[in-house]
Design brief:
Elements (H helix, E strand, L loop, with lengths): L1 H15 L17 H4 L2 E11 L4 E14 L2 E10 L4 E10 L4 E5 L3 E10 L2 E12 L2 E15 L2 E10 L2 E12 L1
Length: 174
């Protein structure tokens, strides 16, 4: 019985460990302004890893970004290494408090996020196809501005509270 309590305590301790918080990037540079970086033509090169860290897919995405005031549209055209293509069109809104909301054709509900310094974090539910069947996963999405033309993106794919994969990509302004 004591061993069960010890395991439960260790599990709770591990769950309480906090990951990075967006506010810890407040004083980092260069400052990421979504309406500046995601404005115009961009290209992304990325990969999808499974829960073991094994490469499952590679892709290139051509992105076209436009903004009108605090509202932006990102039109993403994906080409995967197996020839599959996909489109995601984000509708973004900067809120009065500086946070962001976004919707897209395969996003369930509303993505919410915040920018601080050179980083941007947001979380959202995404419907993906796995073996021909739709599956809803959560993405923990971190973006880091490297310089005025390059942004690195790392997304944890989460299902039932467990990390089941990862997406890593580099986005470059053209």
């Amino acid at each position: 019985m004591m061993k069960t309590y010890q395991l439960l305590f260790i599990a709770l301790l591990l769950l309480s460990c906090s990951s990075a918080h967006i506010d810890s990037y407040q004083n980092t540079t260069p400052e990421l302004k979504l309406n500046e970086f995601f404005n115009g033509e961009l290209v992304a090169h990325g990969m999808v890893l499974d829960m073991n860290g094994d490469l499952t897919r590679r892709f290139v995405a051509n992105i076209s970004g436009t903004w009108q005031g605090k509202n932006g549209t990102l039109d993403e055209q994906f080409i995967y290494d197996d020839g599959e293509t996909d489109t995601r069109v984000w509708k973004l809104t900067e809120l009065e408090d500086g946070s962001y909301q976004g919707t897209a054709n395969d996003v369930i509900g509303i993505a919410t996020g915040k920018s601080a310094g050179s980083a941007f974090y947001w979380r959202y539910d995404l419907e993906i196809m796995v073996d021909g069947e739709p599956l809803v996963v959560t993405l923990d999405d971190w973006m880091y501005l490297i310089d005025k033309d390059v942004l690195l993106n790392k997304s944890q794919i989460i299902k039932y509270g467990l990390d089941v994969g990862e997406v890593i990509l580099s986005i470059r302004k053209l």
